[in-house]
């Protein structure tokens, strides 16, 4: 009996202890659940506050945009001539709705020259306006309107002109393939693509660019451009930054205004093809890194107008070119080479008058320039008027050697026309897009004069991009 009573007491005590332990666990769980609920509610409250704050900001932003649209107020920012999202325009006009941005820019230069046996003169050489637009991140428009030598109404000179030099539309697909059509710069050599006065370090353009490549050379056409980052894609350790870029177009051809003085007057027609035979032109750039690029250019087409006295525009013209752009520290070297080959028996008419006074075309034209540059800035100039207030002023010592050789065209003159030039100059840039240039030229020619003949002289200019 006693044993039974003791067993019952032990059982009751164990059961009571278990219940007490379970009650404690339940209380702990309840406390944890309460804490979780409080944390959860606190976080929900914070998130709700953030959402309300974002909604308020969005409403305020939408209200400001609507107000700007109603008032036709556009945002404007000067980002720098070469810092905009597209083209060469320093002033970026932003659409308040977030698309349709427009850029405005340009450049101007004033030149002075004084050569032997010639009158010294000032020349308002160029005034250029750039207008670009980006209605979508994959759609671009860019244009350049140029007024040269005061325009077509400038007194006496007869050299003034006003023209659209670029007006093209681009459809961007990816880095490697993009489409472009309109009035484009002909991608033969590098200088024609980078001819702006505020970019160049010498006032006078290279002879080969003026006489063989008619810089600035533009034409109506359609084509493609892009870049392949080969070193990065293939994981080349030796050349990790190796790349290829290209521009390639089909475009209207040239007329027959060609002579042994060069191609300067041979122009195509922006509005129509001269002979219904399109020209093909391409440039391929091979970049070993971002400091060294070699370029190869080609041109294949027929010149002359249909119905002209020069074999009805059926004569072939082939051009091959190369260029270099090298930078290392303060040193820089740029240059172009061009060779043009005219079909055997080809004819030219130097004044495009359709009269029966055509002569045989030059068999060839060839030329090059090489231009080394050294950029520097002595520290003692920092506190002078040249350096004071400017962030990164610069002096550039620059030289250039030009050489051109053009075969005889069958006119009254006899023999090839050759001209060579050596130029030494110094320029000053308080900012990247403003430059004052001074230079001296030594010129030498054989047979007919192409540019300066045997006259040596000095040139100076100021140019500014904006």
What does this structure look like?
With 466 residues, the chain is an alpha+beta fold. The chain has a domain of 293 residues: Porin. 17% of the residues lie in helices and 44% in strands. It contains 3 helices and 20 strands. Strand 6 and strand 7 form a beta hairpin. It starts with a helix and ends with a strand. The model has no long low-confidence stretch (mean pLDDT 86).
CATH architecture type of one domain: Beta Barrel
Strand content: 35-45%
What is the CATH class designation of one domain?
Answer: Mainly Beta
| Sheet with most strands: strand arrangement | 3-4-5-6-7-8-9-10-11-12-13-16-17-18-19-20
Q: State the shape.
A: elongated
Biggest sheet layout? 16 strands, antiparallel, barrel
Radius of gyration: 35 Å
> Helical percent range?
10-25%
Structural class: alpha+beta
Poorly predicted ranges (pLDDT <50, ≥5 residues)? none
Provide the CATH superfamily of one domain: Porin
CATH topology of one domain: the name is Porin
Reading the helices and strands in chain order gives HEEEEEEEHEHEEEEEEEEEEEE
The number of distinct helices, counting runs of at least 4 residues, comes to 3
Give the overall pLDDT as a whole number: 86
How far is the first residue's CA from the last residue's CA?
A: 114 Å
Can you count the beta strands?
20
Quick description:
The protein has 466 residues and is an alpha+beta fold. The protein has helices at 2-71, 207-211, 230-234; strands spanning 75-78, 91-94, 101-115, 121-136, 139-148, 161-172, 178-185, 218-228, 243-251, 279-289, 292-303, 315-328, 331-342, 347-348, 359-360, 364-376, 394-406, 417-431, 434-446, 457-465.
């Amino acid at each position: 009996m006693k044993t039974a009573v003791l067993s019952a007491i032990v059982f009751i005590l164990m059961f009571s202890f278990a219940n007490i332990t379970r009650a404690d666990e339940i209380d702990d769980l309840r406390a944890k659940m309460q804490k979780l609920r409080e944390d959860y509610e606190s976080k929900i409250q914070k998130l709700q506050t953030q959402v309300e704050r974002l909604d308020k900001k969005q409403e305020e932003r939408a209200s400001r945009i609507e107000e700007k649209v109603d008032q036709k107020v556009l945002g404007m920012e000067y980002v720098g001539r070469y810092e905009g999202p597209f083209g060469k325009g320093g002033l970026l006009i932003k659409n308040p709705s977030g698309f349709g941005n427009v850029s405005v820019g340009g450049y101007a230069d004033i030149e002075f020259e004084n050569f032997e046996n010639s009158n010294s003169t000032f020349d308002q050489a160029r005034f250029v306006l750039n207008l670009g637009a980006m209605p979508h991140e994959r759609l671009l428009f860019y244009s350049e309107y140029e007024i040269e030598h005061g325009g077509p109404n400038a007194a006496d000179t007869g050299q003034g002109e006003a023209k659209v030099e670029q007006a093209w539309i681009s459809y961007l697909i990816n880095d490697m393939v993009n489409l472009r059509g309109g009035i484009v710069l002909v991608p033969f050599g590098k200088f024609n693509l980078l001819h702006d006065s505020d970019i160049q370090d010498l006032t006078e353009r290279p002879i080969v660019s003026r006489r063989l490549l008619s810089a600035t050379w533009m034409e109506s056409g359609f084509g493609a451009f892009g870049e392949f980052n080969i070193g990065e894609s293939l994981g080349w350790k030796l050349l990790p930054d190796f790349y290829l870029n290209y521009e390639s177009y089909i475009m209207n051809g040239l007329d027959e205004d060609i002579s042994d003085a060069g191609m300067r007057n041979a122009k195509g027609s922006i509005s129509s093809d001269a002979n219904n035979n399109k020209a093909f032109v391409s440039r391929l750039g091979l970049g070993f890194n971002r400091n060294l690029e070699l370029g190869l250019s080609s041109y294949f087409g027929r010149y002359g107008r249909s119905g002209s006295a020069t074999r009805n525009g059926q004569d072939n013209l082939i051009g091959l070119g190369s260029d270099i752009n090298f930078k290392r520290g303060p040193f820089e070297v740029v240059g172009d080479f061009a060779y043009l080959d005219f079909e055997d028996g080809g004819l030219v008419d130097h004044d495009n008058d359709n009269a029966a006074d055509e002569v045989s075309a030059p068999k060839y034209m060839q030329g090059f320039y090489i231009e080394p540059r050294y950029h520097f800035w002595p520290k003692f100039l920092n506190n002078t008027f040249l350096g004071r207030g400017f962030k990164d002023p610069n002096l550039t010592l620059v030289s250039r050697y030009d050489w051109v050789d053009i075969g005889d065209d069958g006119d009254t003159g006899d023999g090839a026309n050759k001209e060579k030039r050596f130029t030494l100059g110094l320029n000053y840039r308080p900012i990247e897009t403003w430059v004052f240039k001074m230079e001296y030229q030594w010129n030498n020619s054989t047979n007919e004069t192409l540019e300066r003949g045997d006259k040596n002289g000095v040139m100076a200019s100021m140019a500014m991009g904006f």
